[in-house]
């Protein structure tokens, strides 16, 4: 049985149960208006639902009952016991039919006409008086006895139950608390040291808890289908109203989203649909003229990626008219003509999210009710999502919604101020810079503190000052870490905090109204050790400090810049250990690590660093002495392997808009470019990876068989082969990718192999071993192994 | 009236909180302060991995706050779905009200007026009955 039908049955049954008491009361007093209304609503709903499902018999019955009851409601007919009996008989029949539908059985033909006829007052009074009460009595009395057997059979069919969402929330809350309690216990167990008798059961508890948590989360999930099902009707009604023909297409209805989230996005989505139909899609005439199919297409596609859902709503209409949008923006005084002229096409599309803009020529009943896309955007962002738009003139418009899976868990950055931790939603965080960096300048404009970095001035707030724990005078700005915040409104400011701790997913819980009133906090969450931590309400803080409008001009410049930037190359500037400035292409930089000097091991030509238990090749140390304690490292990646580059200080990211003047003198340098009129060597990523590239780790490592009885093979050869990315096979029967034989032992055939490398003990090849390799000819051996790898890879 | 009451001491006066509204009495050891909130909110504390808003009853009633919080008792109450810990000087036993609630002519004094519903006789003498919703709303709301 499909979901919709199950819903129908569940709903009908629920209403039946709820109205059971009403029916009895109505029977006692047929003139009771309230009871009449309840029962009318019931049959009315059943009738409405039947329309969707093609249950003509059910519909006919409920329709007849509805008509009769409507007469009574309108006062044209006096409800008497006859009518009551007739209606009750019909309700009983509806109940029976619903059971049959659920069980997937065919309900026996006939009987409806009599029931319906019984509703007519007058002539059939006698007959009805006899049939109906009996029927209702019978079904009431026999439910337990006669129907017990079929009921039991049906019970197996019904595998879903309806629960109030509050109950689910309560259970979920309980489980979240259990997780926190578990974390606390885990911490205490750690402190107490190893306790084998406890650790086992505790691990089991953890596993079970994790499972329960997953299932509970799933309980709260709802398939997007539930949301989608209401759209075809909406689209149909709207398109009729607008005289357009629209086809709706859904994809990814099986994607699941938190129930609450589904409800939260319903309105924004409805608005987008209205807009698409009203402004986006053309009428049939216009569509044919432009060579499109006369039926417009509105497409919904949902996809889950990690703990985010992407929902795309696309139409194949005329696209956003950026000229008109820009003209409106100018007319509305939001931007000046010059500013608009400067905007990229993409930036102009974003004007659609500005408050007070609508592209419709005239306000229609469908859209343009004074609620614009700005509200949609605000609503989406309130639930921690984001919205994006792309549009091509004449081809259509797409809105992309990114939604978190649940409302209550958000990705956060934890920062410290005044010895306490606070959480910031990660979606707002654009960048983190150190106040002590050379390229960060602080300035004052009146009472406003400004920070300049990368050529932009943005307002700077100190978290300590916002929270009132520190006055502005005491703040040593250079000692702060600046978190660059980009709000949903595209307003940017820097938040100075004492330090940045970590990224973590936090479970947000509501806070008491009195705390909410401060306008500083959006919720609270508990750290692993059970201490509470406040979640900062950044939009509110910015709003309270007038940053939201004040910064508009800055924002715009930054924004334009971003679009421009794509044409140039982004590089990261740093000073090497010799104190000289160098640069590396930003794409190569995976992250910046700081490790202890002990974790670096240099011996002769070999230099390696250990980060998080993995070994990386180290470069850059040849330029100078490593610091005594902490070393800063750039972790560079070519997408497959990683190497680390020791630096003295990381300066800044910058645009490399000039050319790179190639230099051949130093192979590790790609060339020299001008940054702020100073020459900066750019390190050559290609050359670095060519030289230090660790062998790529294949998903399925290649296998290699070594002579089983040779100590030399085991102690000397095996590490080399493994370092080259091979797995040593010990399984006699396995066909390995390669086998290495020792020439002095040619008869070795321990197992099948696709390729054989033979090693000889003497540097010079003898006559019988032309194709063999000297066992200490490392280069040749590695080359042979590599060749094998390539051969298989191809 | 046979209402069960949690007897406690607030600002040196005998006070009582209806026991039915008290979920538990806890000892506060660690409070996470929340900068920027009114003074009567001392911060948050965690109870069985739930965050409680700690209300300093002395301050809420317009008295000076006590300096030493650690180890002080607090009554855990639920007001409109939010959990609060009401810091009291001392928390005694649960006892019966010995009399009907009575009003005292002339009132209980400025601080108590808003937060004390009435007075009841108990074993330990006359006791003020605390209105937890008013306490939680704080002095600001009371003034308004």
Q: How are the SSEs placed, and which strands pair?
A:
The complex is a heterodimer of chains A (794) and B (144).
Chain A: H1 3-28, H2 33-53, H3 56-73, H4 81-103, H5 112-119, H6 125-142, H7 148-157, H8 165-192, H9 196-219, E1 221-223, H10 225-228, H11 231-242, E2 246-251, E3 256-258, H12 259-280, H13 284-289, E4 296-305, E5 308-315, H14 322-331, H15 337-342, H16 345-349, H17 373-382, E6 386-392, E7 396-404, E8 409-417, E9 420-425, E10 429-434, E11 441-445, E12 448-453, E13 456-462, H18 463-466, E14 481-486, E15 492-497, E16 499-507, H19 513-516, E17 521-526, E18 532-536, H20 538-544, H21 547-550, H22 552-565, E19 569-575, E20 581-585, E21 589-596, E22 600-603, E23 606-611, E24 614-619, E25 630-637, E26 642-647, E27 649-656, E28 661-662, E29 669-675, E30 678-683, H23 685-692, E31 702-705, H24 711-723, E32 726-728, E33 738-742, E34 756-760, E35 773-774, H25 778-793
Chain B: E1 4-10, E2 13-18, E3 22-27, E4 41-47, E5 50-56, H1 57-60, E6 73-79, E7 82-88, E8 90-96, H2 110-115, E9 116-122, E10 125-130, H3 132-143
Parallel strand pairs in B: 2-10, 5-7
Antiparallel strand pairs in B: 1-2, 1-8, 3-6, 4-5, 6-7, 9-10
How is this structure best described in words?
The complex is a heterodimer of chains A (794) and B (144). Chain A has 794 residues and is α+β, with helices and mostly antiparallel strands. Helices cover 40% and strands 26% of the residues of chain A. In chain A, the strands form 8 sheets. A 6-stranded mixed beta sheet of chain A has the order 10-14-15-13-12-11. In chain A, strands 21-25-26-24-23-22 form a 6-stranded mixed beta sheet, covered by helices on one side. Chain A starts with a helix and ends with a helix. Chain B has a single domain, classed as CheA-289, Domain 4 (OB fold (Dihydrolipoamide Acetyltransferase, E2P)). A 5-stranded mixed beta sheet of chain B has the order 8-1-2-10-9. Chain A binds chain B through residues 176-178, 180-181, 184, 418, 420, 466-469, 509-515, 518, 520-521, 524, 526, 530-534, and chain B through 30, 32-38, 41, 44-46, 48-51, 53, 80-82, 84, 136-138.
């Amino acid at each position: 049985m499909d979901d919709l039908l199950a819903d129908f049955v569940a709903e009908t049954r629920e209403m039946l149960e709820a109205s059971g008491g009403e029916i009895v009361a109505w029977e006692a007093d047929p003139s009771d208006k309230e009871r009449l209304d309840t029962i009318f609503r019931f049959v009315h709903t059943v009738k409405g639902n039947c329309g969707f499902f093609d249950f003509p018999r059910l519909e006919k019955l409920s329709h007849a009952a509805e008509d009769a009851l409507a007469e009574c409601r309108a006062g044209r007919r006096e409800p008497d016991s006859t009518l009551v009996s007739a209606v009750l008989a019909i309700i009983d029949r509806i109940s029976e039919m619903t059971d049959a539908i659920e069980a997937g059985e065919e309900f026996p033909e006939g009987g409806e006409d009599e029931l319906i006829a019984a509703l007519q007052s007058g002539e059939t009074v006698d007959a009805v008086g006899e049939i109906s009460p009996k029927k209702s009595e019978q079904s009431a009395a026999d439910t337990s006895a006669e129907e017990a057997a079929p009921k039991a059979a049906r019970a197996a069919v019904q595998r879903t139950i309806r629960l109030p969402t509050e109950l689910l929330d309560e259970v979920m809350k309980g489980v979240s608390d259990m997780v926190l309690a578990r974390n606390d216990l885990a911490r205490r167990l750690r402190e107490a040291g190893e306790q084998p008798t406890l650790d086992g059961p505790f691990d089991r508890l953890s596993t079970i808890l994790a499972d329960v948590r997953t299932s509970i989360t799933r309980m709260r999930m709802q398939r997007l289908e539930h949301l989608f099902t209401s759209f075809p009707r909406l689209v149909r009604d709207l398109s009729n109203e607008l005289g357009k023909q629209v086809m709706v297409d859904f994809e990814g209805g099986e994607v699941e989203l938190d129930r609450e989230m589904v409800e939260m996005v319903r309105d924004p989505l409805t608005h987008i649909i209205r807009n698409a139909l009203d402004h986006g899609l053309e009428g049939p005439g216009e569509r044919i003229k432009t060579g499109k199919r006369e039926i417009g297409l509105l497409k919904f596609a949902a996809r889950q990626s990690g703990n985010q859902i992407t929902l795309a709503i696309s139409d194949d209409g005329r696209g956003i008219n950026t000229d008109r949008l820009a003209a409106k923006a100018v007319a509305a005084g939001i931007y000046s003509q010059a500013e608009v002229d400067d905007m990229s096409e993409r930036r102009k599309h974003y004007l659609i999210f500005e408050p007070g803009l609508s592209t419709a020529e005239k306000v229609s009943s469908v859209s343009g009710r004074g609620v614009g896309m700005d509200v949609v955007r605000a609503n989406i962002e309130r639930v921690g999502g984001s919205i994006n738009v792309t549009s091509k003139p004449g081809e259509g418009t797409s809105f992309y919604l990114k939604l978190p899976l649940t409302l209550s868990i958000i990705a956060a950055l934890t920062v410290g101020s005044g010895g306490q931790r606070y959480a910031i939603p990660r979606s707002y965080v654009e960048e983190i810079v150190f106040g002590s960096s050379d390229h960060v300048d602080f300035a004052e404009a009146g009472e406003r503190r400004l920070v300049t970095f990368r050529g932009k001035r943005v307002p700077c707030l100190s978290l300590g000052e916002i929270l009132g724990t520190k006055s502005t005078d005491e703040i040593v700005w250079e000692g702060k870490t600046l978190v660059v915040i980009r709000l949903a409104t595209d307003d940017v400011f820097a938040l100075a905090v004492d330090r940045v701790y970590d990224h973590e997913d936090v479970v947000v819980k509501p806070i008491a109204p009195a705390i909410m009133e401060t306008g500083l906090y959006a919720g609270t969450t508990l750290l692993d050790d059970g201490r509470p931590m406040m979640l900062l309400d950044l939009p509110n803080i910015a709003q309270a400090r007038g940053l939201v409008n004040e910064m508009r001009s800055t924002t715009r410049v930054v924004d334009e810049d971003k679009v421009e930037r794509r044409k140039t190359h982004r590089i990261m500037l740093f000073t090497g250990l010799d104190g000289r400035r160098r640069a590396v292409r930003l794409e190569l930089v995976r992250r910046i690590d700081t490790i202890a000097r002990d974790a670096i091991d240099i011996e002769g030509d070999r230099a390696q660093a250990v980060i998080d238990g993995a070994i990386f090749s180290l470069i850059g140390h040849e330029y100078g002495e490593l610091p005594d304690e902490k070393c800063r490292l750039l972790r560079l990646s070519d997408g497959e392997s990683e190497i680390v580059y020791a630096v003295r200080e990381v300066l800044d990211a910058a645009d490399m808009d000039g050319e790179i003047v190639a230099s051949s003198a130093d192979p590790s340098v790609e060339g020299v470019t001008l940054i702020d009129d100073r020459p900066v060597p750019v390190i050559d990523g290609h050359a670095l990876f060519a030289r230090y590239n660790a062998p790529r780790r294949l998903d399925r490592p290649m296998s290699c068989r070594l002579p089983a009885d040779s100590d030399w093979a085991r102690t000397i050869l095996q590490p080399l082969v493994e370092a080259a990315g091979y797995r040593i096979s010990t399984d006699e029967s396995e066909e390995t990718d390669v086998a290495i034989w020792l020439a002095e032992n040619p008869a070795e055939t321990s197992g099948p192999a696709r390729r054989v490398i033979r090693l000889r003990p003497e540097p010079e090849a003898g006559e019988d071993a032309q194709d063999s390799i000297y066992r200490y000819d490392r280069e040749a051996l590695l080359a042979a192994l590599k060749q094998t790898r390539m051969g298989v890879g191809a | 009236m046979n209402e069960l009451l949690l007897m406690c001491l607030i600002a040196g006066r005998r006070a009582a909180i209806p026991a039915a509204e008290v979920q538990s009495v806890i000892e506060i050891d660690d409070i996470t302060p929340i900068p920027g909130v009114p003074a009567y909110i001392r911060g948050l504390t965690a109870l069985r991995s739930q965050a409680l808003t700690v209300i300093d009853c002395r301050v809420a009633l317009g008295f000076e706050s006590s300096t030493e919080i650690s180890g002080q008792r607090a009554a855990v109450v639920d007001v409109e779905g939010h959990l609060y810990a009401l810091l009291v000087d001392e928390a005694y036993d649960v006892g019966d009200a010995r009399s009907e609630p009575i009003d005292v002519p002339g009132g209980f004094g400025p601080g108590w007026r808003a937060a004390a519903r009435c007075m009841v006789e108990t074993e330990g003498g006359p006791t003020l009955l605390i209105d937890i919703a008013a306490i939680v709303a704080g002095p600001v709301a009371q003034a308004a």
